[in-house]
Design brief:
33% of the residues lie in helices and 20% in strands. It is of the alpha/beta class. It has two domains: 5-175, HUPs (Rossmann fold, 3-Layer(aba) Sandwich), CATH 3.40.50; 188-280, 2-Layer Sandwich (Pantoate--beta-alanine Ligase, Chain: A,domain 2), CATH 3.30.1300. The strands form two sheets. The chain has a six-stranded parallel β-sheet with strand order 1-4-3-2-5-6, sandwiched between helices. The longest helix is centred in the middle third of the chain and has 16 residues, at 126-141.
Length: 287
């Protein structure tokens, strides 16, 4: 079987059976096992009679000045092979002229306060661009369910908020982060890391693991910070953008006496590569 690759929404095949559900997995290509896990989870959601569509589009709106848009890997043939092996039914790979026929859009989705902190503060405009392309892809692919990785926790929270606030008729599902055997969260940007840089980058997952062993918010922050401070002195060094322990609902910092669910989010640079990771923690007595 050769997986169909649609360049326009009208070229997408219809689901095989009347009433079958369609799931979409949105990617920027450079597919890896993390994406394959999303595709397999999508297949589970819609069943053998449903349809799984994988979108492949490197969205220029979510890259800021000086970011890696030009060098971001574009490997469509390999991506189609990964998608097919994982159980997808079709790939939607539109050109810029399809996504933005009038050029750069003048009207965009605004991410609001949730999009102004953490990743939004370090990458101004990123989440507006992300939500704009997600909204367009949801309109174009018309899925019943859309699946996203929990590694991009703030992105997932914003997509859920957008689909709720703007009444998108889609179920949004988060899929747990997939990690490599050494603990590094799978990312298309991992390929940029040299061997020494990768050793330093492992501090992100080690910091999250250290925090998970603590009972309270203060202890979790302190344990994670100690690991990251040590990595800052490594060669090459880890340069921290942020370490934040936040409320999953709005990504505001939780106080030291917080109990219940929280997300510990971290972003850092190693060499020229920027990496993010997070862990969901349960602190103190259950809220």
């Amino acid at each position: 079987m050769t997986l169909p690759v649609a360049r326009r929404a009208e070229e997408l095949p219809e689901p095989r059976a009347p009433g079958a559900r369609r799931a979409v997995v949105m990617t920027m290509g450079a597919l890896h096992e993390g994406h394959a896990t999303l595709i397999r989870a999508a297949r589970e959601r819609v069943g053998p009679g449903g349809q799984v569509v994988v979108t492949v589009y490197v969205n220029p709106l979510q890259f800021g000045a000086g970011e890696d848009f030009d060098r971001y890997p574009r490997t469509l043939d390999a991506d189609v092979a990964v998608a097919e092996a994982a159980g997808a039914d079709a790939v939607f790979a539109p050109a810029d002229s399809v996504m933005y026929p009038g050029g750069e859009p003048r009207v965009r989705i605004a991410a609001g306060p949730l999009g102004a902190v953490l990743e939004g503060a370090f990458r101004p405009g990123h989440f507006d661009g992300m939500l704009t392309v997600v909204a367009k892809l949801l309109h174009l692919t018309r899925p019943d369910v859309a699946l996203y990785g929990e590694k991009d926790a703030q992105q997932l929270a914003l997509i859920r908020r957008m689909t709720t606030d703007l009444d998108f008729p889609v179920e949004v599902v988060g899929v747990p982060t997939v990690r490599e055997p050494d603990g590094l969260a799978l990312s298309s940007r991992n390929r940029y890391l040299s061997a020494p840089e990768r050793v330093t980058a492992l501090a992100l997952s080690r910091a999250l693991a250290a925090a998970a062993g603590q009972d309270g918010a203060a202890g979790a922050r302190s344990a994670a910070r100690a690991v990251l401070d040590e990595a800052a002195g490594a060669e090459p060094p880890l340069v921290l953008d942020y370490l934040a322990l936040v409320d999953p609902a709005d990504f505001t910092e939780v106080p030291d006496d917080h109990t219940g669910e929280a997300i510990l989010a971290v972003a850092a640079r190693v060499g020229t590569t920027r990496l993010i990771d997070n862990a969901r923690l349960t602190l103190g007595a259950a809220a």
